Structures
1.
Amino acid sequence: MDAPVAAAGSLGVPRQRAGEPAAPDRAAVVAMLAGYGERSPEQVRERIDSLELAWLVHQVEQRHGRMLDLDDDVLMRMTTVTGAVEVLAEVLAEPAGD
Amino acid sequence: MSNMGWATGAPLAATPDWVDELLLAGDDRDVCLHFGSPVDRAALRHAVADREDTLRRLGLARGGSVALRLPPSLAYVANLLAAWRIGAQVALLDHRLTAYETDRALDRLQPQVVVSFSGTLPGGLRAFYEVADVAEARDGRPAETGHAVVQLSSGSTGPSKVIARTAEQLVAEIDRYTRMDGVPLPGERVVLLASVVHVLGLVGGLLYCLHTGVELVLPERLTVDAILRAVAAGDAPTTLLGVPFHTELLASNPNPPKLPQLKRMTTGGELVRAEVAQRFTDRYGIVLGNMYGMTEVGVIATDLFGEHRPSLLPAPGITVRELDGELLIATPASPYIGLSDPTRWVDGWLHTKDAGRVDPGTGLMTVLGRLDSQVSVGGLKVDLTEVEHTLAALPGVESAVVVYDGGIEAFAVVPDAAAAAALEGELAVRLAPYKRPRALHIVEQLPRTATGKLVRDRAVLRTADPTAAP
């Protein structure tokens, strides 16, 4: 397993492992959500429903090449684009669980 | 007069034995369900007997009424079969309904017993839940008709419709499935992605599988990884049963693992978009089948080999015709309790409100879209009029328009800022999450036609709120 290459981001700066893309920012999250139903980014709403959430989690897993171990409390925070960006920054900064 | 019950809604001659004979029969050790862990027939019969005992002690008897407000779970299956075994009428309430919606439904249905769950459910992409079910007697009424199951639709005007089906109709639907090519065969597996509380997952999934001896597997979560793990967990030929969203989700995986046991995916509801269907079949190398059905009837037509897309062949025993561009289904009696609306059912024909055509030469039918304001949100039917009426009735709302453009979107005139700020919270009390607008635009005024009618065109509405997405 790759070791983190950057110091822990205590001020909201995500850590990043070698070879793994940075945690998605807002525009990237919106772009991934827009992929469902082939919408334009402008058609993506702030609120994320459970179908979009399943879609988003899968897109992030594809992009980062690892499974995200998201417990229920974490998933509950991902019901808005803002919440999803925050959560993804946190969980992608953690070492992969496998 | 075998269809006496259908015609009059009077109690039916059928005894509750159908549950034992058609659903629960089988070898004790035969694994029939997989809800996180395997459930064999002995365990299922035990769970059903346990719930039957509880329901009987609360006074539920043949001809009685019970409402289940349970999420997909073994407890739901056990209570459903137990109530049917008693000969009671079961009302199925989606667990996502708000307390307000549930109370209104219970006022309407007046069940004698309500089975609910204790505690709060964990959130997040679950296909099933481990819940502790709690049954309570209430001051309700026995069933007024001989129907085995009743469900509420999202209503377009005022209260929602009560849709009811008899045990005979459920059995007839199971029989339709058994007479079609392309359905899972005894000894095979179904990984169910659709809700087991709604008609596709309930009859096409749960009841068909129990009857036929097909193992019904619910994945741990509705993520690609968990779905494919559920498929990989068994060797028997496996069918995925879901809605178009699930196809699109799975098709987004560019390199799915080799799963030789995966035989087919079948979806209900609207048609999977052509490019998604192509991507899915390219990536998984399996057949993508399609079904069309309604809560009122169950499965109506299928294209289980994906060979007629976008058309479908009516299921065995189903007669479809086209009238003024609308699809009509032959049904001996109205599926609605307490509704005599000739726009919905008349003279043995159910009006689907789906536009469509029937090819007189081949008998193939094609669904061309809705004729009313009903939309599908992840396979769940939502009537935009219900959302619009709910919003318009909230304090401070002068007028409102609700439209659908990839998601439910609302535009409302609310002059008072405090009332406007409270709208989202008020809606969350009155509407289940899947019915709520994904975007709520507070506008100074709504565009109207020259005759004063509200305009529903999304492009025109956008001009009312400059901040709305184009």
2.
Amino acid sequence: MDACSERMILYMHEYLDEDIPEDHKKILEHHLETCRACRQHFYELKKSIFYVQSLPNIQAPPGFASRVMDKLPKEKKRVGARR
Amino acid sequence: MEAIVNRKIKQVMKGDQNAFNDIVEIYKDKVFQICFRMIGSRAEAEDLAQETFIRAYVNIWSFKQERKFSSWLYRIATNLCIDRIRKKKPDFYLDAEISGTEGLTLYSTVPAEGKLPEMQVETLEMQEMIQREILKLPEKYRIIIVLKYIEELSLNEISEMLDIPLGTVKTRIHRGREALRKQLGKL
């Protein structure tokens, strides 16, 4: 499984970063056609990314903004008015 | 969007506190999400997200308008998260698992009705599992995975925002992906 060269794994990451030189891409594509272990490795990388991206968007809890506003240091005017 | 935000910032700088409320409204979800995915607990994420906005308000004078405000703000958030992670005790992962589960249950977008119960559980379990794997990443990889795959920032933006060379960002995202692959890739 881990017998494949570091170089192919590096090319996979270049590909995933959308920053792969054309020659690296050709070498990688050709290699993936012939090497089952690397195909599996590449598939697992893509699957992991997919899982992370599939997490739902999370929203701040209700009332968040007003709680922040309450905690801001008060403006001088207001401090004066309160006294 | 940037133009509106920059106008609001000028108002805040002039002492208009209400203009800051609009800024909080615009960015609260993004900031909260970064904190939640970095920390795994809803309560702590709210605490950190609030602190992010308070610091932004207090230091607004130091924001340079030629920069992107969102990058400046997210940098504050990620710094606070990293400080928090480093201060945690060694039993952090156990805590994070429990509180992370609670947060995800409360905040899941899975509809409450109209779906098969088995499906819901399965989806939630998956979400919790994925979150746990993110929390297991060393923070310097975690932050880049979160910014890239959850906030969908480009590697260049991340490099600029964190003030780390692009090559280092790439090395870290590669290692982060390999670490995730070991767990998530087998599912």
